[in-house]
UniProtKB/TrEMBL annotation:
<protein>
    <submittedName>
        <fullName>SET and MYND domain-containing protein 4</fullName>
    </submittedName>
</protein>
<dbReference type="InterPro" id="IPR046341">
    <property type="entry name" value="SET_dom_sf"/>
</dbReference>
<keyword id="KW-0949">S-adenosyl-L-methionine</keyword>
<dbReference type="GO" id="GO:0005634">
    <property type="term" value="C:nucleus"/>
</dbReference>
<dbReference type="GO" id="GO:0008168">
    <property type="term" value="F:methyltransferase activity"/>
</dbReference>
<dbReference type="InterPro" id="IPR044421">
    <property type="entry name" value="SMYD4_SET"/>
</dbReference>
<dbReference type="InterPro" id="IPR052097">
    <property type="entry name" value="SET-MYND_domain_protein"/>
</dbReference>
<dbReference type="GO" id="GO:0042826">
    <property type="term" value="F:histone deacetylase binding"/>
</dbReference>
<dbReference type="GO" id="GO:0032259">
    <property type="term" value="P:methylation"/>
</dbReference>
<keyword id="KW-0808">Transferase</keyword>
<keyword id="KW-0489">Methyltransferase</keyword>
<dbReference type="GO" id="GO:0005737">
    <property type="term" value="C:cytoplasm"/>
</dbReference>
Amino acid sequence: MCARQTEILTEKKPAEKTSCGSLLHEGPSAVLPNASAAVSLESSAEAGRYVVVNRDVPAGKILMAEKPYCAVLKLEVGGTHCTHCFHQLVDKAAVPCRWCSGVAFCGPRCRDLALATYHRWECKFFNLLRGSGMSLNCYLALRIITQHGLHFFKKLRHRLQEPPQLPSASSPHRPNDYLSLYHLVGLEEHRTPSDHFKRTLMSAFLLKVLQRAHFFGKWDEDANKPDADLSEDELLIGSLLLRHLQILQFNAHELSGMAFGDTKENFKKTKSVYLGLAVYPTVSFSNHSCYPAVGRYFDGNKMVIVNLRPLKTGEVLYENYGPVFTHNKLLERQRKLSSRYWFK
């Protein structure tokens, strides 16, 4: 692949990450292109940004459909699912990476997209990342950086201080825009010194991996000295890694799929399995309820949101972050929500 092709793929989102509007009930919203026209975005001091339905909606309608801004496959299923699109490798031979044995792809296209972007940097350090014991949240924080490349973030540097704007008809939400992810809630002002230290330490580790991968250019051994200063580019990426670790705590979604038996026709052995972690900027506008209004399913790594019951105009489009009242007692739900999401 020529250098110019690599640069293009590194700077821009892959062509596959387009609107899923054709699936949506009554077509896409003019404000939220990955949500139905029946969905509106609201904001309040208590709830932040959240979504409601602006008309009565019968049960079973697709209200959101979104490809992830970024996704990471769980390491344990790396041999059974495509690292790039997450589809199960059934009835076909896996396509390997040209340089490592840690990942598999469903075809040359997914392999080439990965090698032109994130896997180009992660490949030689795959075993280190896997053996470090870090969570998928940390891996996802790194993947957001590696899927773009340094030049992409250098061009964005001057825009990072722009205040976020509530999407409107004249300025619709742009789910494929990095700033839509960057401005998700991170609650950094409420974090303890211990929390800041742990996330900063992980950011430093991930930054060191990028340095060794020549993400910033050729590695200089003098930069490994304890008193060596970081360059402006390294400071930028290090600060973004820390930002990602903060926002992903509250905005990353677990991604699941159906694991088939020996063939796709063998439904008797089919089961739902946890595949990885992803961030969906539009779906992140949905707040939690232990009695959710919607459910979700996945096609590869694309998330589809369907309402579970009829909804009346003005009803909040609540999803569920894990604890459900039918499976978990009140105190258990409160404990889980307060430890991860800081609310009860």
